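User: What would this chain look like folded?
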Amino acid sequence: MNTPRAAESGHAESRPLRAAIGWGSRWRRAAILIVSTAALSWLCWDFLAVDREMDRDNARSVHMQELIGEVIHLNEVLTMSARMAAATLDPAWEARYRGFEPKLDVAIDLISRVDPETMSEFVAQTGATNHRSVEMENRAFALVRRNDSAAASAILTSPEYDRQKEVYADGMRQMSASIKKRGEAGLESAQNQMLWVVGGVLGALVPVTLYGLAVFRTSKRRATERFRVLFESSGDALMTVGPPAWKFTSGNSATVALFNAKDVAEFISCGPCDLSPERQPDGRATADKAKEMIETAMREGSHYFEWTHKRLGGEEFPATVLLTRMEYGGKTILQATVRDITERKRTEEALREADEFNQQIVNCAREGIIVYGRDLRFKTWNPYMEQLSGLSAKAVLGRHAVEVFPFLQNAGVSQRLEGILTGETPEAMEFAYQVPQTGRAGWASDVSAPLRNAAGEIVGIIGTVRDVTEKKQAEEELVNEREFLNTIGEFTSEAQQGGQKAGHRG
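Assistant: Here's the prediction, encoded as structure tokens.
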């Protein structure tokens, strides 16, 4: 039984214990506060570091996709330039090829700097293929410089060349998919890192956990906003299409302007088939071909192709399209980059028409037209020259003038051509010709002058040739006739003088 004194004594004994407990609680609270503050500081720093890394990864991924698009575009330009050079034998196309070649090297170098690991994988896969394609293109250019259009075109339209280009394009698609996959993995890793840190302190640091979740949501929101800004500010027409109807779900201002839409709302009310003619240039139905292009991009990760689009006003225009598969908002969608290539197509068509027009003039001319390169190899040999010499263009083009016609050396024509390459413009020259291969012989008149490029540099010789055999024969007959008359005159004069002498003697 507790007495008052005993109770008093018990209270007295318990005061030091409660005091000790109170002192210990204050230290414990201080320790918790310090640990919480340190943990919060560490977590904030970690979140900020992860957020910055997400920013860098996102910016790098967008930049890499833009560079890949540029590489694909430049590769197409080089391919088109090589094929146009083979078709037209116009040296301007090789000049265009050489002008764009460094730009492609710069774009590839930028990819190497931004993501060397991905680039090393790409080089390992496509290095030999790219080297082979460039080698084939250079061989074609060499044939073009020898005016062998058929052989050059055969190289650039061969299954081997197409296969090399397809392997290269497949490498680009895989590189794009690899970059996207690495970016997704980096984002997932960052998210997992955030969640792991949050989960580790969740029980003891609820405020810190709540703060971390807020930072995570803010980071995602900021990343989404940054993507939206990059999407909207791009100079290219960018848009997205999504399943199941595969209608447009977004478009930037460049897209709205490209298709003459009033605003984004009007644009996204359409689908790819609504903004295309019923059939594509190859005759295929747009709906069927669009489905195939979408399926290819979803399967391969990206797909680049030419397409005929239609503005909302009904005007059709040619375009290039790059479809890229991406994850957005938990869904798999396609981002499309569309470029209007109307001017490029007009330029190509104008060049083709000009080349055909010039070729018709050369072929229909009633005099020989010859073009030599700086190495004095034949680059043009029109039908008149075929008829005059009996040698076809195939037998002459790409060969040295003296090799085909040795008489040019003795006739002084080859020395005359060498002088023209230095800038001389000599008078017309007539010379006797003999073609051992066909037995053709006669007289020809040649008028030649330097052939200059747009910069005024001498790149060869252009000459016109006429057959003057009949003229020479007439001149020779006239000379013979004069000589005959002179001989008769001299004989008559001598006879008269002889008669006069006889009369004097009589």
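The chain has three domains: 24-233, 234-341, 365-467. If you want, I can go into more detail on any region.
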